[in-house]
Amino acid sequence: MKSSAKVWVVIGVSVVGIVVVAETLRRRRKLKSSGVIDFNAFVERFELLPFPQPPPPAARQPLADLTFAIKDIFDVKGYVTGFGSPEWKRTHLEAEETAVIVTLLLKNGATCIGKTIMDELSFGITGENKHYGTPVNPQMPSHIPGGSSSGSAVAVAAELVDFALGTDTIGCVRIPASFCGILGYRPSHGTVCTNGVLPNSQTLDTVGLLARSPSTLHHVGHVLLQLNAVEPRRSRCLIFADDLFQLSKVPKLKTVHVISKAVESLSGYQPPKHMNFGQYIASNVSSLKGFSDESTNLEKGTAALGALSSVMVSLQRYEFKTNYEEWVKSVKPRLGANVSDRVLEAINTTQDNMKILYKVRTEMRLALQSLLKDDGILVIPTVADSPLELNTKKKYSAEFHNRAYVLSSIASMSGCCEVAIPLGKHDGHPISVSFITYHGADKYLLDTVLPYL
User: Fold this and answer.
1) Residue from 119, 116, 147, 148 nearest 131 by CA
2) Angle formed by the axes of helices 354-372 and 303-331, to 10°?
3) N or C: which terminus of the chain carries fewer CB neighbours within 10 A?
4) Could you name the domain of life of the organism this protein comes from (predicted)?
5) Contact 421, 449 (CB under 8 A)
6) Residue-wise pLDDT tens for the chain (453 aa)?
7) Is 23 exposed, middle or buried (0-12, 13-18, 19+ CB in 10 A)?
């Protein structure tokens, strides 16, 4: 096998979305000269060393020599988990135990170097934080990094760590991965332990992973999910959601065409298929008929996904209220204006029939299972819009949020696994597509993003 035969299955050699080292170093020097250290990714720096290596002839630990950072939502023994909020940190004690998943990474040889900045209370997708500042997007320093796992994405994109942990509830790993030009992985819901991780909405929450290279994503993903190394090679069929690519401002030539060309000569791939995904969901998730969201102003044919995203937001608000209503009302925390509005909306939310929200979730999982079966991979844009400029009101607009939620709601509401994959840039902005497959097929998905020999 020749090294020249190596090609990313998902994007091809010519469009690998990797931050150029020289450019990253130049930006780092410029930021430091202006008083910004390490792209403002970290809220707290420390070092958690890996567990001792086994003596020879035992194999080296799989993550030996890799460094990682964690979102300020993971417990570390002896540190207060800040949840992105000084008010939360002030009213809580040091963690007595380290999050299970962080301990697992340390046991497998990785070194943790600190906690990263996040949207307050994990309630946002822009990546800004009133109290700790906004992590600097290495790809576009004058634009938002995306959130809520903004510091984790920036730490990876700026090459400060090899990989990072975030959490993904309604797109909180996938969106910053797209905006920062790196890989972002949302595992199947419930497959990664969340003990020692502050919840936002348990029905939607997952521990997520951010990395620059598919090899790192694959290795760490296997550790997180404790997967077997060997699995019989399976065929793959890419299914393009044509209606969702119409939402994106990036021409199809930059996405659908590039991916099709990258896999057409590779073995194990069936001819790509195309579909109207919104129509499929409208026909197969009957519980959505009781919901509508006219404010989304979506293109014709994606109304069902607008309804799906509104169900997702309602579910998040309801569960956030259940988790934190008592704390919010007793502490009356001083939050950033945008976060404060969303928290108040959650605390004041009422839902007469919660069962219907959970029924939509169940039907969504069954619909994706039926569509993708054993070999299907749904291909969609990760986000509809490019990262917006800092200090602009557009990033708070309902349209920006609604268009993002429509795309992120597919995996969030079905519990399926998704990987956001960088495709380079368009008009100077990072662009990304996502591969989604059915719940539990995480190894199949991670194997898809490996270099193909």
Assistant:
1) 119
2) 140
3) N
4) Eukaryota
5) yes
6) 333 333 344 443 333 333 335 556 666 666 665 667 799 999 999 999 999 988 888 888 999 999 999 999 999 999 999 999 999 999 999 999 999 999 999 999 999 999 999 999 999 999 999 999 999 999 999 999 999 999 999 999 999 999 999 999 999 999 999 999 999 999 999 999 999 999 999 999 999 999 999 999 999 999 999 887 666 667 899 999 999 999 888 777 677 877 877 776 666 888 899 999 999 999 999 999 878 654 445 554 578 999 999 999 999 999 999 999 999 999 999 998 889 999 999 999 887 788 999 999 999 999 999 999 989 999 999 999 999 999 877 666 888 999 999 999 999 999 999 999 998 888 888 989 999 999 999 999 999 887 533
7) exposed
Q: Which two tokens stand for residue 408?
A: 């992120």
Provide the H-helix boundaries in 45-99: 86-90
* CA–CA gap between residue 327 and residue 348 (Å, rounded): 14
Between CA 244 and CA 302 the distance in angstroms is: 8
Of 194, 152, 160, the closest CA to residue 177 belongs to 152
The pair of structure tokens assigned to 248 is: 């994106």
CA distance 138 to 18: 11
- Token duo for residue 221: 């993903």
* Spacing of C-alpha 387 from chain mean position: 15
Q: Which residues pair with 45 in a beta bridge?
A: 114
For helices 303-331 and 337-347, give the axis angle rounded to 10 degrees: 90
Query: Across the strands, what pairs with 208?
Result: 166
CB atoms within 10 A of CB 369: 17
Q: Return the ∠ at Cα 257 (arms to 141 and 452), rounded to 5°.
A: 85
Sign, Cα dihedral of 314, 315, 318, 324:
negative
Number of Cβ within a 10 Å radius of residue 45: 12
Specify the amino acid at residue 75: D
User: Tokens at residue 232, please?
Assistant: 């019989």
The Cα–Cα gap between 324 and 384 comes to 31
Cα(124)–Cα(276) distance, integer angstroms:
29
* Residue 79: count of CB within 10 angstroms of its CB: 17
Cα distances (Å, whole numbers) of residue 181 to 9, 151, 261, 361, 426: 17, 14, 21, 30, 12
